[in-house]
Amino acid sequence: MKIGIKRINRVSVTATVTLTAGAVLAGGSFASTAHAATPPAPKIVAKGGFLMNDGTGKTLFTKSADTRRATGSTTKIMTALVVLSQKNVNLKSKVTIQKAYSDYIVSKNASSARLIVGDKVTVGQLLYGLMLPSGCDAAYALADKFGTGTTRAARVKSFIGKMNSTAKSLKLKNTRFDSFDGIGNGNNYSTPRDLTKIASQAMKNSTFRSVVKTKSTKQKVTTKSGGYRYMSWTNTNKLLGSYSGATGVKTGSGPTAKYCLVFAATRKGKTVIGTVLTSTSEANRTADAKKMMDYGFKK
After folding, report:
1. Mean pLDDT throughout 47-68?
2. Which residues carry out catalysis?
């Protein structure tokens, strides 16, 4: 009988040890899974940030996402959106470059696509000049082309009106434009959330997507004399080629805006899109965007 009792005890102890070990392993597994499912939110240098899943519209990250701030050249996303939203827009339509555009660049010490007076540049080419080197001369040319009125000033005012109307149609309550390029007069502002929504709308357009994902381009334009020259433009967005899946969108900077970036990337069928405003340097705005997207892809 004693032998039988000892065997039973041994089996009981073994079973207990096995169950205990199993419970520990299971607990560790659950803890590991829970930890992997909730990555720590990134710490960014920028004063404002917003990230969302572009497919579902779900918010993934916020930092002062609804605080109004200067936007710099990220304004040009709306400039492009207004152009591409025109009914039956002809991308091959040619625009003659005016002296007023180059004078504006000089007077504002603005970023330039180096457009040459008298050249005939297509609307499609102007979009590359607008979005890659962030040409304020290209922005002026597009505003002059697509605004309505008998004078250049009236046409520009009309175009900016279209920018604000588009913001209103997107139900953006914290966005206002008083310029076609971000060089405002104190009344040009948006928020990380609003700018992301503008970019999301623009990215629905195939032409816009093609332009903003381009690292560099060489465009053949017609000269005043009827000959041609090539314009070479490089994208200021350093995410392209340095971040896997990056698809755009636009950089911005300025004395008040500091360093801004609207960005997007797609991995395994998931697209995240977001904005950082008022970062402290080019390097930091890029690093901020990468941290946010890394976080977004894990969520």
Report:
1. 98
2. 73, 76, 134
